[in-house]
Amino acid sequence: MSSRREFFKLAGIAGGAVAASTVARTVMATLPEPVIQTSPDTMAPLVPDSGQTYNPVVTLNGWTLPWRMNKGVKEFHLVAEPVVREMAPGFKAHLWGYNGQSPGPTIEVVEGDRVRIFATNQLPEHTSIHWHGQRLPNGMDGVSGLTQPAIKPGKTFVYEFIARRPGTFMYHPHADEMTQMAMGMMGFWVTHPKEKHPLIDEVQRDFCFLLNAYDIDPGSYTPKTMTMLDFNLWSWNSRIFPGIDSLNVRLNDKVRIRIGNLTMTNHPIHLHGHEFLVTGTDGGPTPNNSRWHEVTTDIAVGQMRQIEFVADEEGDWAFHCHKSHHTMNAMGHNVPTLIGVDHRGLAGKINSLIPDYMVMGERGMADMTEMEMPIPDNTAPMMTGDGPFGSVEMGGMFSVLKVRRDQKPGNYQDPGWYQHPKGTIAHEYTGALAEPARFKSEGGQSMQRVHESSTPVEVQVRKPVSHSDH
Ligand SMILES: [Cu+2]
Q1: How far is the CA of 281 from the centre of ligand 1 (A)?
Q2: CA 470–ligand 1 middle distance (angstroms)
Q3: Which residue spans of the chain are classified as CATH 2.60.40.420?
């Protein structure tokens, strides 16, 4: 048996635009050479060498899989295999994925293309690939047991179909699905329209990413695959803030963002500073009369949404899931609320028993972003990310839309932090404080109490009693 090294010619892409011809030039073997990605960075869009007939997508912290043309068929080679994914600087996870990364590469084709995908299984167990949302012959749908036998370890299967409708799609295994998706096996698929489509606008920037989630104990490397709902890492393309790249656009660019949800819960995705339209779903472009402006769109399990807006406000705009525990990283969270509890004297006593112990949360959790309590190796801090004004106190599903006047067309480089015009930043008020005018009423009630004899009760915080304080 040949070694993995011999089998996979490592063809890591190091930045810059990549022409599909890098693969087309190789000898026409029966099987296209698999292209393996070694970096978790956002790669430049893949411009087809046949000429730019569409605006290619940019996958956040991901890449598009090069293909070769073989007698009019677009041929791709996906390799399902164990990968090491850097989820954030300093935090690596041992996942399963495709072609060196999790998620796998984005597959990008044009409506009407005949597509042939070779799927090689280098996992320790069988797999299959389901082409989520596609119109295709039933036998190409990738449901192991139902439409095909599972792909055994070491085997390669061929899928072939015509990309019949333009839109936003995903791919993932349909074999031991709970394990394989919990391990990170999934990828994105974009089919561009063949010609001008009345419901698909041309855009200057077209981003895509998958919502995914993992349960990795602090200090460990491998996801727990039996977790059903209680995941502790909420990621975009298997990256967590501050490891998720920003979405960098030019002022007044029309921007499309395609998002697919392969987690086990819904995610209300929220953009600051702009209103967007949901222009497409799993079923394709939405009709004009179903579009309305929103700033948050909920994406349910197994759904895709594409949002569009004109980026006409300069700045660094937060873009995130609105579930607040989805913008945090792994932590133990069976912790009672301690806001308002006086901890004075307590930490010192515990420290004499447990060195480095820290009492958490007496004034809220923000203190923890600067906490000095040691965390295990290979663990991302719970709330972090240094912005120009201090800690952003975020994790998980959070990124930044950077809108800049001087961003060059087609350039996706990070422009750095926004330089706010003078006098446009919220600032401290230093004048005299007026007494607040408090409203005196106790509030009305729809059901008047009949007996007014009982004494009103106010719930009080019970503080731990420290005898030395008396
Ligand atoms: Cu969420």
Answers
A1: 18
A2: 46
A3: 4-199
The rounded Å distance from CA 396 to ligand 1 centre is 9
Q: What is the mean pLDDT of residues 175-185?
A: 94
Q: How far is the CA of 274 from the centre of ligand 1 (A)?
A: 20
Q: Assign a CATH topology to domain 4-199.
A: Immunoglobulin-like (2.60.40)
The pLDDT tens digits of the residues spanning 385-413 come to 889 998 888 889 999 999 999 999 999 99
Q: What tens digit of pLDDT does each residue of 335-367 get?
A: 455 556 565 666 666 667 666 555 555 566 665
Q: How far is the CA of 322 from the centre of ligand 1 (A)?
A: 6
Q: Ligand 1: distance of its center to the CA of 270 in Å?
A: 10
Q: Averaged over 410-427, what is the pLDDT? A: 95
**Å from CA of 327 to ligand 1 middle:** 7
Q: Can you give the three-state secondary structure of the chain, one letter per residue?
A: CCCHHHHCCCCCCCCCCCCCHHHHCCCCCCCCCCCCCCCCCCCCCCCCCCCCCCCCCEECCCCECCCEEECCEEEEEEEEEEEEEEEECCEEEEEEEECCECCCCEEEEECCCEEEEEEEECCCCCECCEEECCCCCHHHCCCECCCECCECCCCEEEEEEECCCCEEEEEECCCCHHHHHHCCCCEEEEEECCCCECCECCCCEEEEEEEEEECCCCCCCCCCCCCCCCCCEEEECCECECCCCCEEEECCCEEEEEEEECCCCCEEEEECCCCEEEEEECCEECCHHHCCEECEEEECCCCEEEEEEECCCCEEEEEEECCHHHHCCCCCCCCCCCCCCCCCCHHHHHHHHCCCCCCCCECECHHHHHCCCCCCCCCCCCCEEEECCEEEEECECEEEEEEECCCCCCCCCCCCCCCCCCCCCCCCCCCCCCCCCCCCCCCCCCCCCCCCCCCCCCCCCCCCCCHHHC
